[in-house]
Each structure stands twice: as C-alpha cells, then as structure tokens.
Design goal:
The protein is α+β, with helices and mostly antiparallel strands.
Length: 85
Amino acid sequence: MSSLTDIYVRDKWSGEIHRVGDDQHDQLTIGEDGHLHYYNLQNGDGCSTGDTRRDGCFYEFVPNVDVYGYNCDPREEEHEQRNSE
C-alpha cells in the first residue's frame, strides 16, 4: 500500500522500480533551482525533475498516479500487467 508522499525511481539498466527511502543509499534534495533531485549514495548517480540530459542518468522518476488521479504503487501496476499477458 502506498502513502501520500511516496516517490519512485526506475533503474534504467535493470528496469527495477523502487520506492525512494527503502534503500539506505537513497537521498532526496530540492536544489536551488527548485527541482527535486534523487541521488544514490552507493553508486553516485541519480536523476532530477529538471534534468534534460536523460541519456546521462541511470535513474528516472516513475509516475505514481492511478486513472482516478490518486497516488498508487507503480510496482503493483507493473506486476498486474505482467500477470495479464
């Protein structure tokens, strides 16, 4: 079950989605530019809501809103899609 403040990122190499904060190496900041930045302290990579250099980042934020506009867990949707195929 998700809460109102859950943020998810996808590892572009593996495709794995995880909730920010579930890993001890996760860090979120809001920069002076006003954008949200995710940083993985273990491997030194991350992503930003204002990042236009998509090819240089190993992570990307994942939308987590359902068809009704409510917060949802994108990992559950991905699991449901795989089971329906």
